[in-house]
Design goal:
This protein is mainly α. The chain has helices at 2-24, 31-57, 59-66, 75-94, 102-122, 128-152. Helix content is 80%, strand content 0%.
């Protein structure tokens, strides 16, 4: 289920949304904006809301299945991470109604996912779920960084 959620929220749904809005609805918004809009909504908003809920409700999934930690001490920290994920994710979802939020959420999402991906990379003995988190986090951070560079570099 984790892998399906990652694939849908990080690749399939944002790309499908971009293509539908650009090709089917012939949006007047530029392709760069659509990339930012839909990656912020799906990869930051939707994915982080799901992750935040899971971490807040069942922090054991993150500690045991992703990080390989069986101790109970980190559970409170994972729950607090869940609250942070939920907060950032709700802003990402809200950006669909408030387009002015796309750039700030893209900055926060790029930093968060990029740094989390780098942190996963530093772990020497990663399991498959941590490798999925690493690669998907870095992929979205790169997409958001490219979006931000293209948006901020516009005259």
């Amino acid at each position: 289920m984790y892998l399906i959620t990652v694939i849908l929220s990080m690749f399939v749904l944002p790309i499908a949304s971009i293509l539908i809005e650009f090709l089917v609805f012939r949006s007047s918004a530029g392709l760069t904006f659509l990339i930012g809009k839909w990656f912020v909504f799906w990869a930051v908003g939707f994915r982080l809301v799901l992750a935040g809920l899971r971490q807040a409700i069942t922090p054991q999934f993150t500690t045991k299945k992703i990080l390989g930690i069986s101790a109970k001490e980190p559970l409170i920290v994972v729950q607090e991470l869940g609250f942070a994920n939920l907060s950032l994710g709700l802003l990402g979802i809200g950006s669909i109604l408030k387009p002015a939020w796309v750039i700030p959420v893209a900055i926060a999402g790029c930093l968060f996912l990029g740094l989390a991906g780098i942190r996963h990379f530093a772990t020497k003995h990663r399991n498959i779920l941590e490798n999925i988190a690493l690669s998907s986090n870095l992929f979205v951070a790169i997409v958001l960084l490219a979006y931000l560079i293209c948006t901020i570099a516009k005259p």
